[in-house]
Amino acid sequence: MKRIWILLIFAGWITITGSLFLSSLSGTVAEQFGLSRNPQLLIQGLVMSGLVVPIILYLYRHVDRMAGMKPKKSVYLWKGAYHFITGFLLAIILASLGFIIAISQGWIVIEQWYHPDHWFVALLINVLIAFLYEALPEELALRGMLYDVLRYRFSAWLAILFQTLLFLCVPLVATQLQVLVGLAPGNIMNIPYIILILCFGICLQLVRLWTRSLWAAIGFHLAYLEITRFVVMQHNGPSIIAYNETVPGLGEMFISFSMIVIGGIIVSLLILGAKRVIRKRP
Predict the structure, then answer these.
(1) What angle do CA 156, 159, 164 make, to 5 degrees?
(2) Which positions ≥6 away from 69 have C-beta within 8 Å?
(3) Which residues make Cβ contacts (< 8 Å) with residue 207, sequence separation at least 6?
(4) What are the backbone angles phi and psi of residue 2, rounded to the nearest 5°?
(5) Structural contact between residues 136 and 214, judged by C-beta atoms closer than 8 angstroms
(6) What is the pLDDT, as a whole number, of residue 171?
(7) Distance, CA of 1 to CA of 178 (rounded, Å)
(8) Do 159 and 262 form a contact (C-beta atoms < 8 A)?
(9) What is the pLDDT of residue 111?
(10) Which residues of the chain are modeled with pLDDT < 70?
(11) What is the pLDDT of residue 168?
(12) Residue 72 has what pLDDT?
């Protein structure tokens, strides 16, 4: 029984990694039936959440029992769902501040705001797909169950570190599995991507910690994806705005990474530090 936490870590990580691989496989099968891109992605999202959510919720009962925590206090319960807005708005505020700074410094120049008819339907579809395929299953498994198991055994900072490394291993292993069976790799594993994954994992975990709700991490994750895809990245489908950069790639690096991800880490650390000082006051 003392080693049950190791089994839970292994089971949780296998669940998220195996589900990612199987969801990519389902997308390939859907493509063979002639389905277009969005139906393929929706099927992948349904497979991903359909596998991860029930299995992780089942495993979470063992985590709660191991840690002596009452299930009614779990971080994924609906009573904390309002924190979804907290995380979502935090990412939007950081991105908006990033655009204000970049424009004031002359790094980017906004040329056009597109009418909602150009992007609104595509945004709604992508929100649904991203929620099912990425935000919900990844947060429930990684920033939720796996972190809670690690926190039972290690200090908070070590648990954050190990959770982030497990997060990085998910696309690494899933990509290798895709290559082994002849599928196109889902991610290009290079140094910038690895740095992004590591920092993003830390940011999402910290957002969950200061809100004490997994829904905040889900909201932040989803907002980051949509801001990156529909605002920051240009020439990658429908966009909300069009802008020019003084240096190619500067907007994506500064706004998506520096402001949202690194900014989210800094804001979270400041809030956690302030809460700690307040608790220590007599």
Answers:
(1) 130
(2) 63
(3) 87, 90, 216, 217, 220, 264, 268
(4) -65, -25
(5) no
(6) 93
(7) 35
(8) no
(9) 92
(10) 1-2, 67-75, 282
(11) 95
(12) 54
Tokens of residue 165, six digits = 């490394």
CA distances from 96 to 100, 158, 209, 255 (A): 6, 32, 24, 8
pLDDT of residue 187: 75
Strand-pair partners of 113: 241
Token pair 């655009």 is found at 99
